[in-house]
Amino acid sequence: MSASLKRKRSSFNEADGLKRTKTVNSQITKPAEASASVHSLNNETVQDKSLEKDSNIKGCEHANSSIYQGVGATSNHAESSAAAAFDRNKIAESWYLSPPIGGRMIRSDPVFSVDEKFLIAASRATINVTATTSSLLIRSIKLKLDPIFAVSTQIVTICLSPSKSNILWVACSDGSIFSVDWTTGAGADSFWTVSSTGCIHMTVASMESNGRRRDVIFTTENRKDGGYRTTANELADPNGPIAIATRTIYTSKEPIQCLQAAIDGSVIVGASGNRILVGRLRSAQFDTVDKIKFEFRILESRDYITSIDIKLSKRSDAKTSLKNKTHRIPIVDLVVGNIRGVIFIHSDLAGKLFSQSQNEAVPSLLGLMPSKLHWHRQTVHSVKWSLDGNYIISGGKENVLVLWQLETGKRQFLPHMSAVIENIVVSPKGSSYAIQLSDNSLMALSTADLLPKMIITGIQTPIIQFSKFMDRRMQRNNGESFHKPLIQRIPAIMNPINPSQILLAVGSVAEITANGPFVMSNPLLQTFDLATCKSTSVQALTRTNVTNTNSAPSTHNLMEPRVTKIEVSSDGSWLATVDEWTPPNCDYEFLNYSGKDPSTEKKYRREVYLKFWQFKSSTSVWELVSRIDMPHLFNDGSGDSGSILDLTADPSSLRFATIGTDRTVKIWYTKSRVRDGVLVRGTQNEVLKSWRCLRTIQLEKSGIYEINCTVSNSLPLTGCLSYSEDGSALAAVLGGKNARLHIINPESGDVRRSYPGLIEDEIFGLKFLGQDLIILSNRLQSFDIILEETRHILKLRSSAARLSTDQKREMMHLAVSNQSKTFAVALPKLSTGVEPLLGARSELTVFHQDIWKPLYNEMSSSLTTALLPAISSEGYVILDACAEIHTILPKGTHKPIFLAQSTSALRLDATAGSDDQTGSLPDEGDEGDEIEDEPINKISKYLDEAYNTDDQFPVVTQNELAQILDVGPSFALPPIEELFYQVAGLFTNNAVAPIAC
């Protein structure tokens, strides 16, 4: 028995996990006024040596008395008050980070249940069970990973047990294997470790030997001495009578990216680079798996293999042309898809390979020539046999599902899918196809009419790429890339009308490379409900390539516009967006031979649009009302359209403000449409509106611009805007060497005051919090605009200060909460390896407006891509690079039901147990003989039968329950009888009246 194959029980609590976490020095340093104190981070008491003296601030205290006068006294007073009123240990525990929701589905094939009523998919560390009839999430199972590797561990493959239909085998990247009962969630807290070097892929076969049937798990792993191996494992309870056994059956120099096992594990087929591996079981008589032996044959291909699938059929007795040993091998038909878009079909490959010579490498013979199918222009991401073997289903980067009829050679297409097809799965009965797309959506199509029966959509923001195989062998021009590794900021905003909804600018890109990320397009607006953990709508904000060809003749991808800013008006009825598109570099490479600068030509052809959308409650869609072309066009005749650096909404009126590279601030307002002196009205007799520029404010030029420098070198790279809470003041900053803070009167357009020396080079965040202005540049500071003095200054550590301007602009975040009088900051901390984004994290810190020390300070599990204040709550909403959403809330306060909750908090596992031998979940549609014998969770069915026979399965969201139950303190609640009838009315879709006595 291998020592590493021991059953492990993850019986650790949260505190134990924190104790194992290494203490990470804060990226924020204190100025000289702050004295060192003892902090309690990660449950470890350490001396805070990060409070370093800021010599730069000390040297400029008397340089500008109007700004820095009284800084020391103000900071000392705030610190002494905080020390007197708060204990540091208590402050560190006063806020907490909630468990994540959402996540991106892994690239492994989803799994149908045997009865096809449920579809099982996996995200980073969660298994989600969805009903195929209603698209509702039935159960979410969170794996309890090893706390030492939990941050960098994710699920790589899930497989349904061939012998027990209620058991799901789960392989994780750290080499751990889980056996989970997906109908109850049992087994999620214990695992086996099959490899200390990690797991790449897994497949499961049910094998019988010596009168005993067992599940054998075949895994592909890294070897410590280099290379890769395939291992057969029999995993069992270490306290049981069956011993745990393992055996390496194949080794290779290249990774094995695909692996499938035939019935009873007699044949194994895999792909390693451009080679096809076919293995056959030598003898079916073995006591334990460590005595199992396989014989492999290799068939080489020209191109990198990306997908395979096998079809099995029994060999007839009449076929005697092959040797006797091949009679034990079933007929294995193999379909292979490669990176160039070609599909090959190998008929009876196992029988032909093992009928050849005993050499490992088989020569290219006429009998091994495959059939060829070619329609895809790029990588075939997934290819599958139909259940009857008459069709082949394939999909890839063309966003088209292709069905190949083998007898006639005809093709059937299902075009215009919303994103790249990643995985295709055929249901056990052959009645459905499960299609997983790169935009984090999953659908089940009926094989009869190819219409969707189920659609689920998760958070569609991209994640950092961990996959090592897809598209690595073919270099394609994907557009412009950043000079430094970073992950783009996700434009996001909370919906003021519905506090449980978050609006995200997303695209179809699933993953970004960790070393040289490209500029991603995000032309879509996704509305995601935090209360139900579901996507409610997705609509286009710019032109898209869903119905167009998405690649040019030169093979580079046609990039869609990038939405850089989104903002919602205070009443939630208007949405303002900024999108920008620049031609790719490859279109202007010919200019290098003529001595011209391609960047100048690209600048003239840049497209910048400011769009205003109005929400239509009847259709729940944002309708485009106005589009402003080149809103910040330079007036010097150069033709430069100018980029918009920031966009903000007036909290007191229907106005928006923008700041651009033309060094102007523009205020936009709504105006009624008039035609021939008559108001223009819509179909509902409403007055139609349009948006116009109210005024343009020219900001003072910086010192760099005033010197004889070229305009291209002096254009600002960063800029920020912020309205005060009452809308009476507008703060504006343009980044640069001599950046200034401008306070503008929005009504008159006058610049009231300008403060030099506050901003250190570029500006990355600017927010009003009461009368204080929170400024994030190369230091974090709060500036009182009434007293005109700096209250607090925090210097960024060198690890954050050394980042490039692009990295800071995209990965440094600032948010303020007027309800709790706090502000939150997220600063990136990249890893030191070859790929800095792998393992990169963000340091999250929450400060009170009047307290010097942080209320919350912790390293997140991944980089933060959006940081937003929660609506009608004192917390913050965080979106990270794993496409997961967290919330930070103060302890002791009531958590609103509309904020992000983990799926365990949604009580999805409250379904009653079932004695069904097929391993399915309880069927709520089955009726018993007597009502008294039915489970409690079926009460909604009987209410429907009594009051509404048209809707058998009403869906009640938590937001609807919150409107009834979350109305205030207990003494303000209505009578309990009235509450009961209100809740019962939700489940019946009718008003339930009290029964008269």
UniProtKB/TrEMBL annotation:
Superkingdom of this protein's organism: Eukaryota
Composition bias, Basic residues: 1-10
Cellular component, GO, one term: small-subunit processome
Compartments in which it is found: Nucleus, Nucleolus
One BP term from GO: positive regulation of rRNA processing
Molecular function terms from GO: RNA binding
PROSITE patterns (alphabetical): WD_REPEATS_2 (PS50082), WD_REPEATS_REGION (PS50294)
Composition bias, Acidic residues: 923-934
InterPro entries: WD40/YVTN_repeat-like_dom_sf (IPR015943), WD40_repeat_dom_sf (IPR036322), WD40_rpt (IPR001680), WDR75 (IPR053826)
Keywords: Nucleus, Repeat, Ribosome biogenesis, rRNA processing, Transcription, WD repeat
UniProt cross-references to Pfam families, sorted A to Z: Beta-prop_WDR75_1st
Main location: nucleus
Segments for region (Disordered): 1-50, 911-934
WD-type repeats, residues: 373-414, 637-668
Protein's name in the database: U3 small nucleolar RNA-associated protein 17
Species of origin: Golovinomyces cichoracearum
